[in-house]
Every structure is written in structure tokens, then in C-alpha cells.
Amino acid sequence: MMRALYSGVSGLKTHQTKMDVIGNNIANVNTVAFKSSSTAFSEIMYQNMSGASGATANKGGVNAKQIGLGVTTGSTSINITSPGATQTTGDGWDLRITGDSFFIVNNGTENLFTKAGAFYIDGAGNLATKANGYNVMGWQVDPQTGDIRKDTVSVLNIMNEANQTSPPEATTMATCSGVLDINNKQVNSDSGYILSLNFYDGLGYNYNAKFAVKTINQDEKSYTVELTDITDSTGRSVLNDYAASLTGNFATNEERLDAAKANLFGAQGTRVERNYKMDPNFEYLASGNIRDKTTGKELRFEDQNGTKRYVSDDGATSYSVTDVFGITGAALDSFTGRDGITQQGNSAVFTYEDTVTGYILDYNEDGLNPGTFNFIGTLDNQNGSSVGFNLSNIGTEFQNISMDFSKSTCYENGNNCTLDLLKGDEQKINGTGRKLGALTGLQVQEDGKIFGSYDNGNTALLGQIAVAVFANPSGLEKLGDNCYRTTLNSGEFDGIGQDITADGGKMSSGVLEMSNVDLSTEFTEMITTQRGFQANSRIITTSDTLLEELVNLKR
């Protein structure tokens, strides 16, 4: 009798415990990242009325006679590996974490762990949990390399002073593209066709460099690109200021300005090598003379007081150097008749070296080749298409700019010139330079890396949210506030954490993980628990009736 009563009492207690677990699950059906629990029962113990006996030759064995003494709560386990549904919030700091990993948070005294990714930036600029203000832990950026340094986790101070701005960058590249038409009036004017380059120095200040594209020889399709001025954002000429600060014996401001230009371009003027082909009506002779193919006469070179001509022995035939080679101007003045002439087949080439201000932009004879400088800087850089704009000579805050003219062409374009000079490479990705940038937005990637966006177009890595993984996550101890603590049976946290992508997980921004409580399961469990509780109560009432009958034996 008494055993049945106590068994019923134990049944009531254990079913009440299970109902408490079910009630907690249902109460947290809308709690962010809540993990439901379940209860398992186990028998308490058994009283042996008689032991088991073995079989003999004359009779069989007898089983032991045991009477159970009730039930107890065997375990309450957390369904921690089952994910909850996804809720869209639109808040970029609401993060859902997948896989078996946990966010690492710190309450000021110890590291705790959570699946609830409802975060925000607190007043100190730290990433923290909305519910209780615990600091979110992660890895910092190595200031030397700019990459994540995966050592001991620490507080992610995202909105610190260093992250509020993005440092400026000096412009280091420029690209000239478009069409140059040889008949364009500006190109053939004294002032030339003006190109402007907007660029930044290393402090983020904006400047404008002006260049003039001028015709040297329209027939040869050769043009100079000359620097005319550099102005700051207020329109003040920086180039003239620099020229005035030069030391040396300069007689005039114009000479100082020429010296400044020379330093900016790397050399005072540019040595240009030009080739002049002999007219096909003439041919080169080993004697140094030439032959007129039309008449068959041999012509010798004469230079009498600057008059340079090829003349036959009888004096009846005479040609100018321009007639033979097309040479005019300064090249004609330096022509010696034989020096510099090299034979090429039945023709000859005259090489003339000249020095001009600025750089020579050469589109070659057919006018269809990309724009190239046929001489740049030293003799080792001939036939290049990139010019070193040596701005570092102005001041330490400037950097040299490599100017690429290979994207420019020379075509007939209705007398229109469309050349344009822009900072950066061809795709305008590299070398553009930047002003000082202000932080305008933050973004968390799937691997937990936090990037800041700035109004100068720059994007910077600010830190990475680390996660913790345990050998037995169900062994973690629930503390409330959606947090867990390690136990002896969960495995230890190493203080370093790991990248969430290491086990195939990821972080999703703008969404939260909801509770994994299944109401249909919980209500079903509630029904069975209620019936179990009722049945155990009947054991008590029935046992009480039997005791009453026993007492009533004595009248």
C-alpha cells in the first residue's frame, strides 16, 4: 500500500517537472535564438521480494520478484543543434549564425556564449548585445598588414576615432583617352588644346594640372604635351609658387618657371629622336653622295653659308635637303650631309636629335597608331606610352603620377578633338587618389568581417567577429539572457575562437534566428503529461481507498 502511495507521489513530481519544462518552452516560443528543452524519466529503484533461482534437473528456474518504487527525472536536455526559423529585421547589426558555433560575448568578468545575434553599437563605440549590453568579442586588424590578427579575442571597438575617417591617398596614375584630329583649330593654335588633370596630394588636397597639346609637325603627326600650370582648389597657382622658391641664379620668373617645369617632367626639355626617310626618287651611295633616279645623275652635298643643297657636277640639277629628306627647321640647321645617314635597302634614313619643351606625342606616319611618346626621360625609355609626372619635386605630400597616353588615338574626327585626361588607370580603379573620407556605413560579411564605407569611396576592414565551437554544445549551462557558460562536460573555450567559415557556417545580416520551439510537439507533450499526472493521482486516491478499507476491518 505504502509503496504505491509513494510511487504515485514520485509520478506527480516528475510529471510536474516535465510540465515546468514544457511551460518554459512555450513561454519562450518568441524568444530570439531560444533552444527548447526536453525531459526524460527514469526509474528510481526496485525492492527485491525474492531473488532469482536457477534451473535444476527436476524443475525450472524462477525469476526474481521486484517491485518498483517510482519514477524520477532522468535528464533535461537542450535541443541546441536544431536551428530556429529566420526572422527578417532589416537591421544590419542583427546577425543570424548557422552551424554549431556561438557568438562570444563578455559580461565584464567572463566570456559567455550565445546564439542571439541582436547587436548594436553602444555609446563607447563597442559592438554589444541589445538585451544586456554584453560586449561582442572578436579579432582586431593588424595595423602593419591591414589583415585580421587571429590571436586572443577582445572587445570589438568599431566606432573608435581611428575608424571614423579613412586616410587620404595621393593620385599616382592618370589616363589620356580620346581622339586627336590633326585639323583641330585648338591643337594648331599658339595656346594648344588644353587638357586638365584633377588629382590629390598625399594630404587629400585637390589640385588641377593643365597641359597644352600643340602641333610640332602636322605632316609627321607629332605633337608636344606641355605643362602650363598647377592650381589648388582655390585657383592659386602652385607651380608658380614652387618656381619662386627655387634656389639658383635665375634672371627672370620665366626662367624659374621653366626650371620648375623641368623638375616636374624629370628633365629640362625632352630629347627627341626623329627619323626622316629619303624620297624614293633618290638612292644612297657608298661615297656619301646620292643618285637622282630620274636623271641618273650623282649629287653631292653643299653647305655654303647655311644654304644646304644636293647639286650635280654640272650644276644643272639641284635639290634642297627638304626635297630629299623632308627636313625643315632646326633639323635642317644641324644637317651635315653625311653624318647620321644610315642605309636601309635602296633608301636611307636620317636620324635627327632635337630638344623640345615638354613631351612629344607621336602618332606615327599613318596617324592610326595609339598615342605614344617617342622619347621619355632617359635614352633607355624610348617608344614608351607612359610619362612620369614628377610631382614629388614640389613637396613631400605629392607623389609622382604615371600618365598613360596609349589609349589616345589620331583619326579624322570632323576637326573635333576629344582627348581627355582623367586620374586613375584605364578602369579608374587604381591610382585615382582619395580625399580624407568620413565613415558613412558599416557592413558585416558572411565570415564575420566588419567593413567600413567612407564618402571618399574607400572601404576598410575594421575587425572580425569570432565564434566558439564546443565538442558537446548540449553540455553548456544555460544562464538566462540567452547566454551559456562552459561546463566540465561541454568542452573548454580556448580564448582564441575560430573563423565561422572553418566548419561551413556563415553569418547573415539583417535577420535573426527565432526560437526552435515546436508548439505542436509541446502541446502533444502537454496532453501526455497531463494524463500521466492524472493517472498518478489516481494511484494515490485508489491506495487511499484500500487503506480506508483496511482500517474499516475493525468495527
Secondary-structure topology with pairs:
Elements lengths: L1 H26 L9 E7 L2 E5 L14 E4 L2 E8 L7 E3 L6 E3 L4 E5 L4 E4 L4 E3 L5 E3 L5 E7 L6 E8 L5 H4 E2 L6 E8 L12 E8 L5 E12 L4 E11 L5 H7 L8 H13 L4 E8 L4 E3 L5 E3 L5 E7 L2 E6 L5 E3 H5 L3 H6 L6 E4 L2 E10 L2 E4 L9 E2 L12 E4 L11 E10 L9 E4 L13 E8 L4 E6 L4 E7 L1 E2 L8 E4 L2 E3 L21 E3 L1 E3 L5 H33 L4
Parallel strand pairs: 14-29
Antiparallel strand pairs: 1-4, 2-3, 5-38, 6-37, 7-8, 7-11, 7-34, 8-36, 9-10, 11-12, 11-33, 13-31, 14-30, 15-16, 16-17, 17-26, 18-25, 19-20, 20-21, 21-22, 22-23, 24-25, 26-27, 28-29, 31-32, 32-33, 35-36
Helix pairs in contact: 1-7, 3-4
Could you explain the architecture of this structure?
With 555 residues, the chain is of the alpha+beta class. Helices cover 17% and strands 37% of the residues. The chain contains 7 helices and 38 strands. Strands 7, 8, 11, 12, 13, 31, 32, 33, 34, 35 and 36 form an 11-stranded antiparallel sheet that branches. It has a 5-stranded antiparallel sheet with strand order 15-16-17-26-27, covered by helices on one side. A 5-stranded antiparallel sheet has the order 19-20-21-22-23. β16 and β17 form a beta hairpin. The longest helix has 33 residues, at 519-551. The protein is rod-shaped. It starts with a helix and ends with a helix.
